[in-house]
Design goal:
InterPro entries: KFase/CYL, KFase_sf
Number of helices: 5
Structural class: alpha/beta
CATH topology: Glucose Oxidase, domain 1
Protein name: Cyclase family protein
Organism: Leucobacter ruminantium
Largest sheet: 7 strands, mixed, barrel
GO molecular function: arylformamidase activity
Helix content: 10-25%
Number of strands: 12
Pfam family, one: Cyclase
Oligomer: single chain
Amino acid sequence: MIDLSQPILDGMTVYPGDPCVSVRPALTIDRDGAAVSALELGSHTGTHVDAPAHTVAGGLTLDRIPLDELSGEALVLDAAARARDRRPIGAVELDLEERLRGLHRVPPIVLIRTGWDRYFGAERALAHPHLEVAVAERLLGLGMRVLGVDALSPDPTGGLACGDGGEGPAPGFPVHAAVLGGGGLIVENLRGLERLGSRARIGIFPLPLANADGAPARVVAWE
């Protein structure tokens, strides 16, 4: 089994404007006889799932998404060799026409590898490439229901620090608007996609938060 999730750590990188992450001891074995950590974090911390309610008024919350939509076969599209800081990833960078040749449908889960997971925790993480909305729309038309990326977002990211009141991915952000607006899901901050082939069996397991716009998730691939 391959873990595709970023560990949740005190002070870790988050999307600009999201709540900062705090992980601290609340109880200790020496003092209290048991160890318990106190967690303070946003619903889009680390590797996480965006539900439609994240950007769509009245959109589905995560607890209304069946778990079987978050597991199954995935198509892995690799643009890491051509990905550049803050540049779009389109059909050319993904060799999309070659990858889709002869396909009338794609698996419900599509993962985009940019290679930007290697910068997670560094300032350059904010300079990730972003997906052209035309690619997302093409994949949606072929049956994609879940889009996963190994970067902070499939759309461009600004540069505020955590907790500074950033607006997050507004409805006008094209890839979020296309995928979440179509009732799909987005998974962000994946890692280790280079360990997968062009097809993989994936499981995405978000925290069961009630009425959630999103939640941190453990994402795994079966070898």
